[in-house]
Design goal:
By secondary structure, the protein is an alpha/beta fold. It has one domain (6-214): 2-Layer Sandwich (Thymidylate Synthase, Chain A), CATH 3.30.572. It has helices spanning 11-25, 54-59, 62-73, 87-92, 101-111, 162-179, 201-208, and strands at residues 6-8, 27-31, 34-46, 118-121, 135-143, 146-157, 184-197. Strands 1, 2, 3, 4, 5, 6 and 7 form a seven-stranded mixed sheet that branches. Helix 1 (11-25) packs across helix 7 (201-208) and helix 3 crosses helix 6. 35% of the residues are buried.
């Protein structure tokens, strides 16, 4: 594939790199009626995704990380998203059924390590009437003996939530890799709208300028 727009070692490196790019080159736009700076059709590669990340631990908001972790692990509906079904319920009980998509991916890759169709979705068209999940497609494959992941999102807020998305996607990748007794490979994150809300611009400039990052 062509070189990604962001090529980073860790999820923390990726978060700061895309945030810098948005602040430097993003175009003014609006999302849900709110002003943003936006980059379109961004490819972010993380070469060594890990769910525990020094940069995220140091600079991320613990409450936002906890909220995102609950979204990926708790089956309860999400009040902040209009009582939409959580990512956990979509991944592990798709469509309100007992269909565990993550287990299906593991079984599919175990049965055929060369498969290119271990692909699952969080989009539930028969249930999603207003909220459309930002992360909608997750594709797993084994390359060079490692478990890799390709993810598509229609939009990601890299001010308040993007680092949490990266952490939880890395955690999911670790889970699948561990079940297959494989090392974790790279994570490719394809984002149609990578943005920062205007209300977060000052905070993101502060985060990027943090002295500890230059150490």
């Amino acid at each position: 594939m062509a070189d990604p727009d962001i090529d980073a070692e860790t999820v923390g490196d990726a978060w700061l790199a895309i945030a810098r790019s948005i602040l430097r080159s993003g175009a003014p736009s609006r999302y849900d009626g709110l002003p943003i700076l936006e980059l379109e059709n961004v490819a972010i590669r993380v070469r060594a995704p890990r769910s525990r990340d020094r940069i995220v631990d140091e600079l991320g908001d613990p409450s936002r990380l906890a909220w995102m972790h609950a979204n990926f692990t708790d089956f309860a509906r999400v009040p902040a998203l209009g009582d939409a079904r959580s990512y956990a319920s979509r991944l592990y009980a798709y469509g309100g059924t007992e269909r565990d998509q993550v287990r299906w991916v593991i079984d599919r890759l175990r049965a055929d390590p060369a498969t290119r169709s271990a692909t699952i979705t969080t989009f539930e068209p028969l249930l999603d009437s207003s909220y459309i999940p930002c992360v909608s497609l997750l594709d797993f494959w084994i390359r060079d003996g490692a478990l890799c992941q390709v993810v598509y999102a229609h939009s990601i807020d890299f001010g308040a939530k993007g680092y949490g998305n990266l952490v939880e996607l890395a955690f999911l990748q670790e889970t699948v890799a561990e079940s297959l007794a494989l090392p974790v490979g790279d994570l490719l994150f394809l984002v149609k709208s990578a943005h920062v809300y205007d209300t977060e611009l000052a905070e993101m400039r502060r985060v990027i300028a943090a002295p500890a990052l230059s150490a």
